[in-house]
Amino acid sequence: MHLGQVMDTTLHRSLTISQISRLIFSSRIISSIDIGMAAGEGKLSAEANLSSDTTMSTKDYLDPPPTPLLDAGELGKWSLYRATIAEFTATLLFVYVAVATVIGHKRQTDAEACSGTGVLGIAWAFGGMIAVLVYCTAGISGGHINPAVTFGLLLARKVSLPRAFLYMAAQCLGAICGAAMVRAVHGAHHYALYGGGANEVAPGYSKAGALLAEAAGTFVLVYTVFSATDPKRMARDSHVPVLAPLLIGFAVLMAHLATIPVTGTGINPARSLGAAVVYNGKKAWADQWIFWVGPLAGATVAMAYHQYVLRNCAAKHSFGSNHHDVQA
Length: 328
Hints:
By secondary structure, the protein is mainly alpha-helical. The protein has helices at about 5-30, 40-60, 80-105, 120-135, 145-155, 160-185, 190-195, 205-230, 230-235, 240-265, 270-280, 280-285, 290-310, 310-315.
């Protein structure tokens, strides 16, 4: 090929790229004007339709349809039971590490005090373990590790009722086993001496205040879960799925820093139940209802806020027509 031919070919390609660039630029401009003005000319009309389709594809994003409330077919799938086992194991590990950290911190008051972690360390233990376990189990079970999270997702039609029931049962059983492991490691004497890591309303605080604190802390957690796993955001921003476990862990950490002085921080009914069962203290059982009502109420409000306030489109269609039945 002669040099002149090469230059002509290069120039032709440059013009083609330039034309394409102008086409893209013009289509963006047309999206901001009245498309009806372009209807008279075929070329402009085609560009206007292209821009309109692009705009509508973003505006009319549809989330996956709601999960059936009762999915009998799901009970015959191994994936459900594998996910349930994952929830049991994750909750066991979470409660073991977290409650063991609480017991270790309280032993600082002994004459031979260990170099305990302190309140900040306890918050990091809870938040850090949640971040790690959500990362490990998200692809298997969704990484709930908390009946309040499962309850919120059930209300949002993201999980079926049978799955939610199995998850909650597995979480509670895992929490009991995790607390029992702490008792076995530290011994019955020290475990009972330091309250078994059980949640109780601290002296000087009312039950109403404790209930509000638990609801608020759980709201922070569940709201973060919904935001970090929002399918629309995940489709738009590729970094969101990667950061989700870290963000959820930080939500747990912050909730603990705010709530430890009031209740020792539950925000997880399974964690509170597991410690209460193994410790079996009178006050722990007397206050147990707070660590169920508060978190479940907080999860409900967080779900409603995200679904029906922030994601208003979902509010209009979740229980509407079959053609637009979506979830946020």
